[in-house]
Structures are given as C-alpha cells and as structure tokens.
Amino acid sequence: MRWLRFAVLVVVAAILQTTFVDMIWVLDASIKPDLLLILLVFFAVRCDPTDAVITSFVLGFAADLASPTTGFMGPRILSFGVFGTLLNNLHNVIAIQRLPYQGAAIFVMGIVTAVASHLLSYLRAEPMAFSIARQCFLQPALSGVIGPFLFLPVNWWMHMNGARRRRRKH
C-alpha cells in the first residue's frame, strides 16, 4: 500500500467533500455524492485485510471531520471501520469487479453506514438532525451511480493494479 498517496487522496477527497461537492447536487441541495464512502468501498474491495481495516478507520475519521451535521467525532469512524472491514471479508467470498456490483456495494454500504452512524449518534445526549430519505437512500444512490466511474482514476493514482515487475530472463 502506498500510504503517502493514500494520505494525499484522503485529504483531497475530504476537502472536495466539504467544498466542491456542495455544487454537485441532484433535485435538492442536500443530496450530493459522498466521496469518502466511494473511497471506503474502493479500498475495502482492493486491499488486503490489514490495509482495509486501517483505510476504513482513516476514511471514517475523515468523514467525521468533513461532516458538519454530526458535530462530534465517532459515529462515522466506527461505522466506516466496522462495515469496511466486513466488506473486505465479504469480498474474499464474492468478487465485486463489475460496475453494477460496485455501484450496488456503494449503495448498500451507504445505507448501513448512515443507519449505524445515526444509531451511534443517539448515544449522545443531543441527537442530530437526520433525514432518512436523504442520508439512507438518495445520497447512497447518487454515490452508487457516480462511484464506479471514480474507481478508474483512483486506481491510477494509487497504482493498485499497476505494472507488475517483470522477471528477468537469464
């Protein structure tokens, strides 16, 4: 795993999530894609188990920092970490290679992480405002449509399937 490239990618995605993605919306200004969720599925599907756990928790940390609705740390770290690890384990059984399957994986992960984040936020004394239609369906659906097309540039940047070393013929 190229950790410096990963760190740059996460910082850029978190900055884009809080600034540029606000300009990309469908039907309503509050419905926009979740870039960090897309990265979560990308790394959970393409990394080995140890790297997938680390990247899932780091992306959850970045999602908590980039999310103005929660107001505190924790829900997204835990939900991204746990479900990213589960997706990595599931990917060892079921291959998620085609675009429709990747989109479906992003959609399902968006739903379960949003529900888990919301339930974890109820542990606090002050529950946050929550729109079930927006956070549990529309945002994951938009992310699922856009996400598989972002896998190619992220794959290029991370060199996940880059040129393999050639063996020398003697």
Structural notes for this entry:
The protein has 170 residues and is mostly helical. It has 6 helices and no strands. It has a single domain, classed as Arp2/3 complex 21 kDa subunit ARPC3 (Orthogonal Bundle), CATH 1.10.1760. It is globular and about 40 Å long. The two termini are 30 Å apart.
Question: What kind of oligomer do you see?
Answer: single chain
Percent range for β-strand residues: under 5%
Unreliable stretches (pLDDT < 50, length at least 5) are 162-170
Rg for CA atoms: 16 Å
H/E element sequence: HHHHHH
Measured as a percent range, the helix fraction is 55-70%
Domain module count: 1
Count the beta strands: 0
